[in-house]
Amino acid sequence: MPYPDHALDVPEQTAVAAAAASAPSVLNSQPWLFTTGPQGVEVHADPRRAPTATASAQRDVYLSCGAALFTVRAALARLDRAVRVSVLPEAGDPLFVARVTVTGDGGDPEAAALYRWVGDRRTNRYPFRPEPVPAGVLALLSGAAEHEGATLRRLDAEPEYQRVLTLIRRASLAEDDAVREDRTDRLTTGVPPAVPVENLGPVPRRDGTDSGAVRDLAPDLALPGRGTAAFEPHPELAVLETAEDGPASWVAAGQALQRLLLEATGHGIAASFANQPLEDAELREEVSSSAAHFGHPQMVLRMGYPLTRPPAAPRRPQHEVLRRVGR
Ligand SMILES: Cc1cc2nc3c(=O)[nH]c(=O)nc-3n(C[C@H](O)[C@H](O)[C@H](O)COP(=O)(O)O)c2cc1C
């Protein structure tokens, strides 16, 4: 039987998988596998790729796959396809994350517009301009998170801001040796390494003005070519939260993350993350324990206007992450 007109041809499948693989992932582990065919795309987790030493290991895989899933949706919308999305669970397939089935022509225009920023988005661990993110842009980012069933909680009240900053610093200081060694191995193994020196950004200059919100992913390594820098003293911080906690919520949070990061990129705003307190079960509890909020924290974001644009971080070759089926 011939395929309908809206079926995906091979170049379209290749383009969608390439876009999906450019999504952010924990330590650039890219813990996903894509199955593409004329009828759509499936996203599966590949947890062998991801860090295992943290309390957030499983969650981070689903968050990463959720970010890839939103990118699949945006890429298909850009190809003017309407889709149906079904997210886990799938009986008998514990690594299944989601299936995106093409149902006809006519892509979601908002998702299609966000696709434009997929290639420009970067995690930016360089200093930002010491300038606030405009309230109107923050409202758009909150709207993007809500669209995907998550909440972007701005840390705009000073006591709460300082409380979360303290938790970030505490987490960095208390990090287990095994966790740090595992991360160092993952960062430095491979050619190119998962997070090259240009993507690590400079070592924050600890001169009393540093907020501690910019994560130094490689504090134990003296890397040639890596300088130091003073960072903006009062970065814009926000916590991405979900009402429930578990694989489906993590996938939703991952989609919300990528949606809001693409929206931010379109407005000239970059982000990096300070997830260290979320990688420890007790500290994560404290991030969420503020009186007014009962959401489950999934990501801690630092946002601002970038001064420097890092190169795109490397990705696994497509043949490692893509399986094609004819059906
Ligand atoms: C679940 C998750 C957790 C992350 N945690 C951090 C973090 O704590 N600090 C950080 O600097 N980057 C963090 N990142 C960003 C990744 O390191 C980044 O996406 C990856 O290196 C690929 O680079 P890119 O985003 O520039 O494409 C995280 C990303 C995800 C999806």
CATH topology of the largest domain: NADH Oxidase
Low-pLDDT parts are none
Topology order in helix (H) and strand (E) letters: HEEHEEHHEHHHEEEHEHEHE
Strand content: 15-25%
Tell me which ligands are bound.
flavin mononucleotide
**Whole-number count of domains:** 2
Mean pLDDT: 94
CATH class of the largest domain: Alpha Beta
Tell me what the CATH architecture of the largest domain is. 3-Layer(aba) Sandwich
Q: What would you report as the Rg, rounded to the nearest angstrom?
A: 19 Å
Strand order of the largest sheet: 3-4-2-1-11
**End-to-end CA span:** 11 Å
Largest sheet: 5 strands, mixed
Structural class: alpha+beta
Overall morphology: globular
Helical content (DSSP H or I, runs of 4+)? 25-40%
Number of helices: 10
What does this structure look like?
The protein has 327 residues and is α+β, with helices and mostly antiparallel strands. It has 2 domains: 10-118, NADH Oxidase (3-Layer(aba) Sandwich), CATH 3.40.109; 135-304, NADH Oxidase. It is 36% helix and 18% strand. It has helices at 10-21, 57-78, 109-115, 135-147, 158-174, 177-188, 197-200, 247-266, 281-287, 318-321; strands at 32-37, 40-45, 81-87, 96-105, 151-154, 203-204, 228-229, 236-242, 270-273, 296-304, 322-324. A 5-stranded mixed beta sheet has the order 3-4-2-1-11. The protein has a 4-stranded antiparallel beta sheet with strand order 5-8-10-9, sandwiched between helices. A two-stranded parallel ribbon has the order 6-7. Strand 3 and strand 4 form a beta hairpin. The chain is globular and about 70 Å long. The N and C termini lie close together (11 Å). The relative contact order is 0.20. The model has no long low-confidence stretch (mean pLDDT 94). The structure holds flavin mononucleotide. Flavin mononucleotide (FMN) binds next to helix 2 and strand 9.
